User: Fold this.
Amino acid sequence: MTTAQAPLGSGFSAHSTANDVMADIDLVGKVAVVTGGYAGIGLETTRALSTAGATVIVPARDQEKARRALEGIPRVELSKLDLMDPDSVDAFADEVLGSGRPVHLLMNNAGIMATPLMRDSRGFESQLSANHLGHFQLTLRLWPALQRAQGARVVALSSGAQRRAAFDFDDPNFEVRAYDRWVAYAQSKTAIALFALALDSRGKAEGIRAFSVHPGRITTDLQRHISVADLQGLGLRDEKGEIPAEQLHLYKTVAQGAATSLWCATSRQLEGLGSVYCEDCDIAQAVEAGHQPLDGVLPWACDPVLADRLWDLSARWVG
Assistant:
């Protein structure tokens, strides 16, 4: 495990909001890229970065939806990106690199969750493709812009779902085993945590630091593929289709959900640090399999050997 994987005592908590962690942050002159920055916690992230003075580039597949959501937010530039299409990733990266600007903050925020079995044009399972591989390719293609920042941070949106599944190196695309959309989602989020760990080890000498984040349990459009009946079957909704009263304390608002990403992107407490999985606006504790509370990062999501193995595999996959 990475020895840095221990809480700092940041002074923030699960209840801290985007405004709380950004209260004294000045990003004037900085450039940020926020994938999925037009919906859910991504939109809140875009607002907060813009309010702090940053220019925010928001690449989106649904241009009209993004345009409506971002209307009125200053210093936002809308571009086009489909993370499951490698040509689209390259085109967006070429656009950013062509501007000659540095990218100080790369927020790999976009994702899909618990989808039916779908594959991209290369045959990769869709959640692995959109959540991990697309962002892997994007980050490496934007590397020159991250270098130009002379102190960049990459924040990768993982999830507490990493607790559910390790990365299956033998059958990552469910070509042999039966497809389970929740296992596929969990595997993609474990992959994201490992990606941030491997990325940080490769970038820190050039001032590029990486973090993975569990934003918390939040109700957003990310759950669009999940029916109320599905949630009831998981015990996450009662007979009325509502969150059970005893679980309400586990949920965050969108502003609280964006807080940990923003803390990782901007906090002075993290200067000189990287590679860690964070939750509730602090570095999460490393825990062992079987740990009962719903916190912490499992060994298979913070193992540098597994991180390097996945990096090499991902690099071969994306060419």
